[in-house]
Task: structure prediction
Amino acid sequence: EQLEESGGGMVQPGGSLRLSCVASEDLFSRHTVGGWRQAPGMEREFVAAIAYNDDSTHYAESVKGRITISRDATKKTPYLQMDFLGPEETAVYFCKGGVSWGQGTQGTVSP
Result:
């Protein structure tokens, strides 16, 4: 199953990015979807997840209150709304559904 992220880009500190993810077949109806990120020289880290069955959400402590994961009610397309971003959050952002990963999209926070 294939995943593809979109919505990366460059913003200033304090700015926002909204990422989304598309998948082949009906992956999002069968699997919890997670957002992850990998900063330069760092390990990939968990950001947020939304369950496929009840839309319950889970967040890393470092992003609570600033990042929101949600899904489109009809197509189940997941979105990751990221606000008040800091330069340390410059990373490649990934979508994960089940055991499948997307290729990632670059998010850069810089003055």
Summary: The chain has a mean pLDDT of 93. The radius of gyration is 13 Å. The first helix runs from residue 27 to 30.
